[in-house]
Each structure stands twice: as structure tokens, then as C-alpha cells.
Amino acid sequence: MANFYTDNPNLKAHLQHPLMKKIVELKERNFADADKYDYAPLDFEDAMDSYDKVLEVVGEICGDVIAENAESVDHDGPRVENNRVIYAEGTKKNLEACRKAGLMGMSMPRRLGGLNFPITPYIMAADIVSRADAGFENLWGLQDCAETIYEFADEDQKERYIKRVCEGETMSMDLTEPDAGSDLQSVMLKATQKEDGSWVLNGVKRFITNGDSDIHLVLARSEEGTRDGRGLSMFIYDKRNGGVNVRRIENKMGIKGSPTCELVYKDAPAELCGSRKLGLIKYVMALMNGARLGIAAQSVGLSEAAYREALDYAKDRKQFGKAIIEFPAVAEILSVMKAKLDASRALLYACSRFVDIYKIYDDIAKERPLTKEEKLEAKAYSKLADAFTPLAKGMGSEFCNQNTYDCIQIHGGSGFMKDYRCERLYRDARITSIYEGTTQLQVVAAIRHVTTGTYLNFIKEALEANVADNYADVKKTLEVMAEQYEAAVNNVLEVKDNAYTDFMARRLVEMAGHTVMGCLLLEEASRSDAFDKSIEVYVKYGQAECTKHAEFITSFKPEQLEAYKY
User: Fold this and answer.
1) Type and span of the H or E element at 137
2) 123 vs 293: CA distance, rounded Å
3) Which residue, among 259, 255, 230, 229, has the nearest Cα to 246 in the 3D structure?
4) d(CA 412, CA 418)
5) Whole-prediction pTM
6) Angle (deg, nearest 10), helices 498-527 and 372-411
7) C-beta of residue 105 within 8 angstroms of C-beta of residue 143
8) Are 188 and 203 in contact (CB under 8 A)?
9) Which of 138, 223, 292, 549 could potentially form a cystine with 231 if both were Cys, beta carbons 3.0 to 4.6 Å apart?
10) Tens of pLDDT along 159-218?
11) Is 261 strand, coil or helix?
12) What dihedral angle (degrees, nearest 10) is formed by the CA atoms of 394, 399, 404, 406?
């Protein structure tokens, strides 16, 4: 019996982060639900015990059901019959197991049928599910779309739709179109209001994950004659009402269990979600930030799976009379894989905690006015969440791709064969740095936090903390990295050329990421010896990467930019 939660002590270390006490107390409103629901916690310790037990259930289902079905799901995949998606048999079993265990709508309030979990333990569950099968995480994880309904829909819509999600119905977000990928302001799916005030949708959506779901969030053009983002609104489409057909499922490289659909809307009845004209400007931005955090979790789960596959193989595979893990070249690859895994996970959970606090304050503000101190705190954590989300998604997905690549490398020729799991992990990983905003778009989102000092301020504050004597050298290295980063930022900004800043943005964001992750790992290592080796390895790795970027920036002359233009 495998359990993907209990076999990973690093997860519990993150769950027990000191900031969780504040998160739980805010989320539970002084544990007021204890009088209304028999499964609501009585206090902080009770809440943490509840998260722990549910995550143990997640780990068991992932180890015994989802991981066991992953190979057959990858082979069989979903299909289209009569314009409807038919899941692979393994996917059906996975969904049924999650429904029976009550793992749908985890972060939704109890009054709507959810578990009222903070984002952090929910993201931890997504991490575990992704280790079992990244493709299934795309179906299970889309329950996060309910967060958008909870934040922006009216009470009647919350009652009707969120309860269904908590009971196990699936969701999708229908954003992209054949001519509108990352450029969502070009969306042209038409929303028409009828004389009775109701709405119908007409047009085509493409690359829609789980596109034949029960409940859809749809971005559509509600304002006649507009061509930009100000003419777009968000709608809720209920599959029960008909009007949407699946034209086809894309034949993908990886995550094959997750149907990526092309949808045709023909007078499909829909409901306006929130206010007109705010579909892209406000609602999709919130939706995408949640999705990007989910992809960061998916990336970490895949990195975990790749590291474990590589480690097990290196211990078993013998060459020249000994296990290949005894060869320094192989041991180094494994050490760096583990360091990247631990660093990206530290970044993921730091980000999720920041998201937790500002979102809980937003929710509290609907019930009562926030105090001045609460408003300031909410603003500060919102800024950190905005800064850390593109960093977690961008760097986490790149590390995921690197780790699955190295997993195959350790397997050698065997890794190129479908007999081994690493081949599927490699294919599944590739999409993580593409969908929900490519790595390049994450850099665009992150660079303003480089130029305005968000990352540097966080790094400096983190380095003010006292550390044990055995980490003194690590801290000194991080201080050098911080100095390199600050100098590189100043070098670029002194040129006062936006094109030049854009060209150097990736390097600056990566320097920020390596230094931030080093600081986060140092904090984790100070609390748990589970990170002893990773902090040493990662900071050495990060230092080399920062030095490389710093030297490139220092030696680069602005006029040389012409050679990079097409």
C-alpha cells in the first residue's frame, strides 16, 4: 500500500510552517463553524490534524489508485462519441475515488458543501496528485475554478454551482480561441443578450482543458463593436442546458488523460458572472493566478516523481560491477535534481501562504470592514503573492522540465523506451512551461517586481534572520548573490531603455528566483534537517547561475542588442 503523503516528510514540514497558525485562525474566523458542523475544527491543532488526515487520504488514493491507473490512461486516453467526451476507464475510477473521499471543492466554505481548507493544504494535495498522474491533476485541479464563482458570482449562483462542484461535478475555464491564445483580449466568442435578459453564446473555443466538463467559466465578447479587453465578460455555462458540442480532442504529446477540446457554441444558454466588461480585466486575472499556482504545484509533483524514479533506478542499475549511484557524475545529477525539487517546493508553498492570507482578508472584507492594520497586511501579502506567482510557475516549470530530462539521462537508453515511467513523465512535463502563460510571459509578469524592488526587499529581510552556525557559509553565499542581483538590476536600469530592460528581464528574474529560493530553503533548513543537503547544493548551483547572468549583464554593451533583433 503506497501513500504519497506519508512517504514524503518534506510535505509535513511545509504544512507546519509558522505562518499556518495565522492562516488557520483567519480562515476559521475564531472557529465559529464548530457549532454548526461536526467536521469543523475546534482549534488550531484540530484544524491541522484535519488537514493531515485528509492529505493522508489523498496520498493513499494517489498511491493505490491514481498512480496505478496512470499508464493505462496515458495509453487509452479519452475519446469523442456523439460530440461528447468519454474518459478513459482509469480516469473514471480516479474521479469516483476522489468523489467518494470528498476531495472535490476542498477550499470552498462548509455552507456550500466544501471542506473550508486554506489554499496551502489544497495546493499540497495538487502536488501529491500530480506526482501520481499530472494529466489527472488537470481534471481534479479544475475544481479551483469554483474559487472564481465564489469570489465574483451572486449568492444564487454560488448556491447552485459550488454545491455541485463539492459533490463531484467537474469544471473548465473556456478562454482561448483559434486566434486568441495568450492574447486573450482578442477573444471573439459572441455573447448576445436576449429581450428577456438572458444570454446565449456563439463561436468556437480551442485548447480547452476538460472541455466537456459539467460547469464552464467562459470568456466572451458581450459588448457589440468592441475589439479589446474592455468588451469581454465572464459567463457560467451549464452542460445540462446543451448548446455546446465537442468538435475534437487534440492529439497531444503528454498529459493524455486530460481531454484538450475544441468546442462549438451554438446559442448556448449562459449566465453572466459578476459585472459586464470585467471578464478579462478582473475575473480572468484572478482565475489565471489560481491556475498558475496550480501548474506550479503540478510541476513540483512531476519533479518529485522524476527524482524518485531516477533515484530508484540509480540504486538498482549496476554497471562495471557497482550501482550507478556510486558514480560521481550520476550522484551529482541526483543531488541537483533533489535541490531543484526542494527549492521549487519551498517557493510554491511560500507563494500559497501569501495567497492564503490576502484572499482570506478579501473574504473577511465582505463580512465586515477591515481595520487599518488588516488592510495594510492584506495589501502587503497581495503584493508578495503577485510577485511570487509568476516566479513559482516560471521557475518551477523549468525545473520540472530539467528534472524529467535528467531522469531519462540517468536511465540511459532504457529511459527512451516506453517500458519505463520516466518517458511519460518527460512528455507530461513539457506542457508545464507553456500553458497558463509561457515562461516568457511569467518573466513579463515578474520583471516589474524586479524593477520596483519587491524581490530585493524580501531577500534583504530574509537575510536579516539569525541562522545556526552550520549555515553561516550558506548565508554568506546568499548575501553575495543578493549583492550580485542588486548590482545587475542597477546596471540594467541605468541604461534607461525599455527594450534593453526587456532583453535582460529573463536573467534578472532568474537571479531573483535563485536568491529567493535559496533564502526560502535556508529558512526551511533552519526548521527541519530534511533540507540539510539541498540547501548546500542549491545555493552552490544558484550562485553559479547568478554569477553567469551577472557577468553577461556587466560585459554586454547596449549597442550589441541590434545583433539579437529580427
Assistant:
1) helix 134-140
2) 8
3) 259
4) 13
5) 0.97
6) 90
7) yes
8) yes
9) 223
10) 999 999 999 999 999 999 998 878 899 999 999 999 999 999 999 999 999 999 999 999
11) strand
12) 150
